[in-house]
TrEMBL record:
Protein name: C4-dicarboxylate transport sensor protein
Lipid bilayer topology: Multi-pass membrane protein
Species for this entry: Ciceribacter lividus
Claim: Transmembrane is one of the keywords in the record: yes
Transmembrane regions: 21-39, 308-329
GO MF annotations in UniProt: ATP binding; phosphorelay sensor kinase activity
Chain ranges of the Histidine kinase domain: 393-606
Keywords annotated in UniProt: ATP-binding, Cell inner membrane, Cell membrane, Kinase, Membrane, Nucleotide-binding, Phosphoprotein, Transferase, Transmembrane, Transmembrane helix, Two-component regulatory system
Chain's role: Member of the two-component regulatory system DctB/DctD involved in the transport of C4-dicarboxylates. DctB functions as a membrane-associated protein kinase that phosphorylates DctD in response to environmental signals.
Superkingdom, natural source: Bacteria
């Protein structure tokens, strides 16, 4: 009776889990669509916020650039040399003085051009008077900035210059002089440097005039194109004012899709979808007064689909995992119910079968225990193997400084016997420096293979060479070798970790010294050259060289040709990994006449390059 009740409970549990599994399957195939929709909305909102920030920065940059020159015409109009142009009779001396003054102001203020118009719009004096594109004598009365200045006292207008064919922002002020006709002072500001900044940014930015014609843009494909089709009035006004003289606006394709008009209250309007060079863009707008300019900021929506697809896939995977877990529970419940039923039948019919089942369960448990113990043993063995690899690396990298430390302390002992205390102190300082270097080496070996373990710094490559030669000096002296350094030009600077590069350089030097041991007239030369943005440090020895069949394997871990047990085959492997981490490479070649050429190539840090090299 008790077992029958348990069997019933198992059946109910299995049915419930089955229903949950079916519901989970429905949710699994529904969730990706919801996740895609939510992720798309979140990504679009993030892009809109980014575009809004870009618009704020762009508006501030434009306002700052305009404010630099807004009061310049009024200030220039107070100068006596400029006011003298209002006289009816203007001598050549008056005109020359005004021209030279305007030329000087342009050079100091950074404006594109400065010029003065009479009350009819004819240029009297200009900063470019001495050039072939001089404004003097030209009639600019058709320009709105002249008409607004005569009528309202000041004017502003962006257009392509009809004389220079160069675009600029014109700011004008009327100068009233008692007893004389007024004159108009105009400054032309070059806003095109803003385009360079926008082109380097990740957001495509453009500015359109009040008619919707783009005249500044970080995207060259947008320049001198209307946002929407031009009205008849706009086309006539632009043609009459010769705003974009030399451009064919009639053939220009609108930037916005058909039927889409640039929003007037741009800050409150949602972003628009814009086609740009085969990709879909998300665009927002803002307005700049008093010129009624429209600022457009757009960015690619390509990553939105990728991000939404990622979250949809993640939701699908999570749903499948959850469904799989429920299915497993369902199968487990069915198995439990089946076992309960089988147990009831077996208990009633075959008593001995119960013992067999008990033995089978016991055997299964023992097997699982053995498998678990074997798995734990494999994990422990892997840990011990990793510890062994680290220990061999530490021994390899510390052995050379220990040898130098032993030689230094031995020298200190000899000097102590001779009562040369000062020199003993120097040797002890050298010993202490070697101990510190071993500590740094151990620290770097602990973090070897793990990026970000040490902070990058600007490293003088010549300093690295000197330090490595100092470390290898005891070994070189014992062999009767004096390494020669040949450096061309100023010392390049690279971005790396200095101590790690010293490890690399020391390893190359020690390999060269080992190669020349026992050779007649042993020689080790270190050459440093720089070309094409790279610094090359070459170690040349006249030793036995590397066999051709070994040349491609010398950087493999644990590969060594030394038969005395001195090398573990890790030095060049570690050195190659360090150099590659900083974007460099180590290569080996055969030296003329025998020996080996080992070259370490590293990219030069352009930000810290030598001034002469930067100029070239």
């Amino acid at each position: 009776m008790q077992k029958t009740g348990s069997n019933h409970v198992g059946s109910v549990m299995a049915r419930n889990i089955g229903r949950m599994t079916a519901l989970m399957l429905v949710a699994t195939f529904t969730a990706p669509f919801a996740a895609y929709y939510v992720a798309s909305g979140a990504a679009v909102s993030a892009l809109e916020a980014q575009l809004q920030r870009s618009l704020v920065l762009t508006n501030r940059a434009i306002a700052t650039e305009v404010e630099r020159f807004r009061y310049l015409p009024l200030v220039i109009g107070e100068d006596a040399r400029i006011r003298a142009l209002a006289e009816n009779e203007r001598s050549s001396a008056v005109l020359d003085a005004a021209n030279l003054y305007l030329q000087t102001v342009v050079r100091q203020a950074g404006a594109a051009e400065l010029y003065v118009l009479d009350n009819r719009g004819v240029t009297l004096a200009a900063s470019n008077f001495a050039t072939a594109e001089s404004f003097i004598g030209h009639d600019y009365s058709f320009r709105p900035y002249f008409q607004d200045a005569i009528r309202n006292g000041e004017g502003r207008y962006y257009a392509i210059g009809v004389t220079t064919k160069k675009p600029g922002y014109f700011l004008s002020s009327r100068i009233d002089i008692p007893g004389h006709q007024p004159i108009v002072v105009v400054v032309k500001a070059d806003l095109q440097p803003l385009e360079v900044t926008w082109e380097a940014a990740g957001v495509q930015t453009a500015i359109a005039d009040r008619w919707g014609i783009v005249f500044l843009s970080g995207n060259p494909d947008w320049k001198y194109r209307p946002l929407a089709p031009l009205s008849r009035e706009a086309a006539e006004r632009v043609a009459a004012e010769r705003t974009y003289d030399g451009t064919d606006l009639a053939e220009a394709k609108p930037i916005l899709p058909a039927g889409v008009v640039p929003p007037i209250n741009a800050a409150d309007m949602p972003a628009l979808r814009v086609d740009g060079e085969g990709q879909q863009l998300l665009a927002k707008f803002s307005a700049i007064e008093p010129d009624s300019w429209i600022v457009l900021a757009a960015t690619s929506t390509e990553d939105i689909a990728k991000l939404a697809g990622f979250w949809a896939l993640a939701a699908l995977i999570a749903g499948l995992v959850a469904t799989g877990a429920l299915y497993f529970l369902h199968q487990r419940a069915l198995l439990i119910r089946m076992r309960l039923r089988q147990g009831e039948i077996l208990e009633l019919k075959v008593a001995e079968r119960t013992q067999d089942l008990a033995r089978e369960i016991d055997m299964r448990r023992r097997t699982e225990d053995e498998l678990r113990r074997a798995q734990e043993g494999l994990i422990h063995s892997e840990k011990m193997a990793a510890l062994g690899r680290m220990s061999t690396a530490i021994v390899h990298e510390v052995s050379q400084p220990l040898a130098a430390l032993e030689a230094t302390l031995a020298t200190a002992g000899v000097l102590a016997e001779k009562d040369e205390a000062a020199k003993v102190g120097e040797r002890l300082l050298d010993a202490r420096a070697l101990v510190k270097r071993m500590q740094r080496t151990v620290k770097h070996l602990k973090t070897f293979g793990r990026k970000g373990a040490s902070e990058l710094e600007a490293v003088d490559i010549d300093t690295v060479i000197r330090n490595a030669i100092d470390l290898a000096a005891p070994r070189a002296k014992a062999l009767g070798v004096v390494p020669t350094v040949e450096a061309q030009g100023p010392a390049p600077v690279i971005t790396a970790v200095g101590v790690k590069l010293e490890q690399v350089m020391l390893n190359l030097l020690l390999n060269a010294l080992d190669a020349v041991e026992g050779r007649p007239a042993p020689s080790v030369i270190v050459q440093r050259t720089a070309e094409a943005g790279q610094v090359n440090v070459t170690v040349i020895d006249n030793g036995t060289g590397i066999a051709p069949e070994h040349r491609d394997r010398v950087t493999e871990p644990f590969f060594t040709t030394k038969l005395t047990g001195e090398g573990l085959g890790l030095g060049l492997s570690i050195a190659t990994a360090i150099v590659r981490e900083y974007g460099g490479e180590i290569t080996f070649a055969e030296a003329p006449g025998g020996g080996t050429i080992a070259t370490m190539s590293m990219p030069i840090d352009k930000r810290s390059a030598h001034p002469l090299e930067a100029a070239q």
